[in-house]
Amino acid sequence: MFTGIVSGKGVVAVIEPNDFGVRLTVDPKGWEYRPSHGDSIANNGVCLTHAPAPGKGHGDGMLYFDVIRQTLETTNLGSLEVGDAVNLESSVTANTPMAGHFVQGHVDGTGEVTAVKRGTDEVRVTVGVGREMMRYMVPKGSVAVDGVSLTIAEVDGEAGTFTVALIPTTLELTNMGGDAVGDGVDLGSDMIVRSVVHVLEMTGGEDGGGVTLEGLRRAGYV
User: Fold this and answer.
1) Which domains does the chain have, with CATH numbers?
2) Cα separation, 134 vs 129, whole angstroms
3) Cβ 45 vs Cβ 111: under 8 Å
4) Does 106 have pLDDT greater than 70?
5) Is the pLDDT of residue 215 over 70?
6) Mean pLDDT of the region 134-155
7) pTM, rounded to two decimals
8) Residues 86, 11: contact at Cβ < 8 Å?
9) Cα radius of gyration (the chain)
10) In the predicted model, what is the mean pLDDT of residues 38-66?
């Protein structure tokens, strides 16, 4: 579990293909957190396990992850190149401030940047998504974009897009300052919104007729 408050911005150092996917080495670039073997680290919002080889890890200061093909195909980790910046976040602990929102680190889908509008005090980024993800985009609600917890400023249902406003701090501490039209981004929906949508769909039936006693039985609530 994460909060979407990025605590470090690393750089891809090595991408080594292997039988199951790739071995990803990330230079944390001064990130203060030093994970132990087996710790969960979000990379661009994707929960990965820190798995240094014997003698690696704390000794050389690098982060090591094994990324399977399915993850490469369903997230933007598959398009990473050496030198690319990645957003880093350690998993939530009992004393972690909940400054963002609940982020599972399980990417729900991907989107494509369709517009970037740069102003004097903010940058507005518009992301195009499919119908599946648009169900979870709520005005003034939360969304994780490449692991960054953001508030949805606008939703355009007809165009299938949502817009977020990035303040200077976000631009400085994350890799979103380099977003350009055509870039792919990983998306994590708000798990509370996703749960509500799921329950409504389960209880409303195929015709979407609302909550019924029979629907509640089907969903296991009665």
Assistant:
1) 8-90 (2.40.30.20), 109-189 (2.40.30.20), 191-222 (no CATH)
2) 6
3) no
4) yes
5) no
6) 94
7) 0.83
8) yes
9) 19
10) 85
Under DSSP, the state recorded for 222 is: -
SS3 77: helix
How many CA atoms does the CB half-sphere of 194 hold within 13 Å?
A: 17
Whether residue 120 has pLDDT greater than 90: no
Give the number of C-alpha atoms closer than 13 A to the C-alpha of residue 33, restricted to the C-beta side: 19
How many degrees, rounded to 5, is the angle at CA 15 between CA 13 and CA 20? 150
Q: Which helix (H) or strand (E) holds 149?
A: strand 148-156
Token pair belonging to 163: 């817009």
Say what the pLDDT of residue 92 is.
Answer: 86
90: which DSSP letter? Answer: E
Q: What is residue 1's predicted lDDT score, i.e. its pLDDT?
A: 85
Residue 60: what pLDDT?
75
Write out the two tokens for 192: 């509370």
Per the prediction, the chain carries an average pLDDT of 88
Q: The tokens 């991408």 sit on which residue?
A: 15
Please return the burial class of 47, using the count of CB atoms within 10 Å of its CB with bins 0-12, 13-18 and 19+.
buried
Tokens representing residue 7 in the block: 């605590």
| 200 CB-side CA count, 13 A | 11
User: How many Cβ atoms are within 10 Å of 181's Cβ, its own excluded?
Assistant: 11
Tokens for 158? 């007809």
For residue 11, pLDDT beyond 90: yes
Tell me how far apart the terminal alpha carbons of the chain are, to the nearest angstrom. 30
